[in-house]
Predict the structure.
Amino acid sequence: MHGSHAYGRLCFEGRFYLLKRGEDIKASRLDWITILIVATLALAGWLNIYAVVYESQLDQFILDINLNSGKQILWFGISIVAVSLIMILDFRFFDSFAFGFYGIITLLLIAVLLTGTVVSGSKSWFEIGFIRFQPAEFAKFATALAIAKYLSKSQVKLDNLKSIGIVALIVGIPAALIILQGDTGSALVFGTFVIVLYREGLSPVIVIIGLVAVALFVLTLLFSPLILISALLAIGAAVLLFWLISKKVTPKKLLTLGVMIVIPIAVILSVNWVVTEVMQPHQQNRVKAFVNPEADPLGYGYNVTQSKIAIGSGGLLGKGFLEGTQTKFDFVPEQSTDFIFCTIGEEHGWIGSFILISLFVTLLLRIVFLAERQKSKFSRIYGYGVASILFFHFMVNIGMTIGLFPVIGIPLPFFSYGGSSLLAFTILIFILLKMDAHRMQVLVH
Amino acid sequence: MKDNRSLIIRFTFVIIGVIFLIKLFSIQVLDENYQLAAENNVMKGLVEYPYRGLIYDRNNKLIVYNKPVYDLMIVPREVVIGDTLNLCEHLRISKEDFRDKLAKARSYSWYKPSIFLKQLSNEDFASLQDLLVDYPGFYIIPRTVRSYPYSGMANALGYIGEISKSGLSRDSANYYRQGDYIGLSGLESKYEEPLRGKRGIKYRMVNVRGLEKGSFKKGRLDTLPKIGENLISTIDIDLQEYGETLMLGKVGSVIAIEPATGEILSFVSAPSYNPNLLTGRSYSEYYGVLSTDSLKPLYNRPLMAMYRPGSIFKIVQAMVALQEGVIQESTRLRCNRNIIGCHGPHSFENLQGAITHSCNPYFVQVSRKMINQGISEDTYEDTRIGLEKWRKHVESFGLGSPVGIDLPNEKGGMIPNVNYYDNAYSSTNWKFSNIQSIAIGEGENLVVPLQMANFAAIVANRGYYIKPHLIKSIGGSNQPLPEYQVKHYTTVDTKYFDVAVEAMAEVVRSGTGQYRAKLEGIEVCGKTGTVQNNNRPDHSVFIAFAPKDNPKIALSVYVENGGQGARAAAGIAGLMIEKYLNGCTDRTHMEDYVLRGDFIY
């Protein structure tokens, strides 16, 4: 359909047998390594979802539709249908229709604000019959597509404020709408696109400033502002003294030093204000729990304390499949969704955790590898978008269960129980695989 | 530059993974606290209480056993509040009571079972069993309470009850938990450890709401309960019951001991109570009544009531004086009633006669010889030396400190020493004439009835005793505790006791004891004591043993305000001896006399 000339040229690059079979066997050019990892994660996740609901005293069947594990199988089916659709669609469809997706999702995000169902404090669900569906999950890949689309335009460079501003707007609109729904956790995911921007040329200074701001934020929570400000002033004084002694002091240096001291102090002072005035009580508690869960192990520190107990009790080898007690007996909240990692930690120990984390890191590296081998800018940027979204979920979800991140209610990709997230992550990754399979055809245009 | 950034991004991914694995290693492998916390979360120990040991009398008659009772349990979450009137009627509680108890259970836990009504009887259980089908959330678990086929011996047996807060804090071995039952008095308390056995624990797993979820670690940590050891008492329950009957309507005690073994044959404290009153549901009902009764039925008189020893003490004085060599059996002394008053027609007795006739002047003179032996020229100093010598002898008779029965709260009485008189006279300037009333068992001497029974046993044994005890065998040991197998010799040589025995035989043969303690075919030895009681009627006291040779029973009888020892106490002692040695008595007139209880005329 794209002319034999292209295939002929490509066959000299050693892909002769692939091309010869024509476009009907697109699947054979899919990256099976990625698919294998994703399938492994989904299967392992499914077994763990069963482990959470398993009760030895009951006669249970893993496929029982009344159990979460049974329902998850249903979502596997739906996801496979979605994959088939993606495979049938033309690979250029996602490029052409990127803004279209983005627009539709934005409308859905607005609609859910008006007509959605409230589930555990967030008005972010549509309810159709017995199926619940959460547009925020799908906003992630739509936004990734939109960023890719915008940044792939030849005239866009990330060295001017206008481009950065437009990208910020593309990311900001769905994020803001999701915050309005009351789902701050999902909104925070959109911050991960900074990785994409960094790869595409955003000045590292901006990234570093951002990271320093986050670091200061955390430090301010851990220590009293007075100590931090004193420390900063002490460092400043030490630097100034060094300059004076070595007689290297210039007005420009002095100005820089001044800015480097004053701005962090401003950040430090504003953090307290943000925590007490802007954040909602439950968010404040999550921050407090992150800083010191032991302060109130039965109150705001409960989730983190119990989650660490469950994981920590797994030891090196774990208690064995279906032998966990902390997750099964409801000591850990949200065991099958946000805190699913606890089941791995408890039943499969450090070895199981090692395997799972290795799988995720391998998947992330594989996606970056795929992104880098793209011939078109669009698919490369999208690839990085996929990697950053998965990375953020991986980092925050596991990090919060072991007390390295504040509790942010987002799922572990392919692993947590939940239809919307499974479907959304499947679509996210299979769009990349579809484009990757056709990466050579881009050259034809 | 782009490749560089790609590498940085990949590096970040890997670093995060490595950080997670390091953190996980530290909490999963290096830190054991999480494992403990997890077990703490899910592990719940279910205590299985063993049966408390039973108690038999010396003839293998069961005197304490466990009776099943039933606790009505409630799980508030499962309760359906409908028509509760019927249930209330069966439980014999009011609707308000029902509501209160339900609220209490709910405030404890909605999911965990708690006791709704304690210790229902067999009859309650029968009527409830079918009814409860209609009341979900209620169920019955069996427990046991103590039960007593005989109504006697309550003060020796004691009772069990929930351990108190102070009891918990005293429990250094940390065995008991709140709500556990423990022996609170009597044998139940003294033999608590062998009686209670060892409880077992089944570890169960519970979920976050406390619902059970199967056994913990497949029961590997569980322990089985060990049933409490049975005790065999030294008590002859028939003799005990007989003694209690004789003491009806009186205040006092009857203690009978087998002299050769120190085994207590009967241990009567009057007035007493039916031990079944302090079991199960009735405990709280009756404890208050009994503890505020003006006649103090909970007061363990044989161990705790202190009396002056009275004339009986003259035998001790005689033995001590003989041992010290200040008199001989043949020593005759004038009954000089200018020294101290006396009774009966006698004037110039030897030692045996003086004991038999309870001659006061004789023993005051003997005591003076004993106390003032002329060791020091200073009369005061001489008295001090003599008193200490005397006291050491007297204490070897088990007087002045607790004898060591296997019951709690035993009192030791009092034998005055030098310090006592120094304090009493606020100086060291006192001499025999100041303290001479101790010579005849009045004055500062105090004894408890158990010590007097033990004293009778000492004379019966001609000079030694084994600590009186109530338990002769614990579990399969067939032996009492080691301390009840040791002979304690007095400081008086055996040969001197013959005169005491002869004198006591004479008391019953022809003296004050002849009217009520003399038995046909059994040679009883006895001594009356009439204990002055300020301005109230005297206490009637009698000690005795029988037969004279190879004695089988020694006893002391105290009847408060019973007048002369020859009346109430001697009568009861005679009947007890007859009952024990012959198995029965046909002296119904004596029984009537004792039961009528009108001794002062």
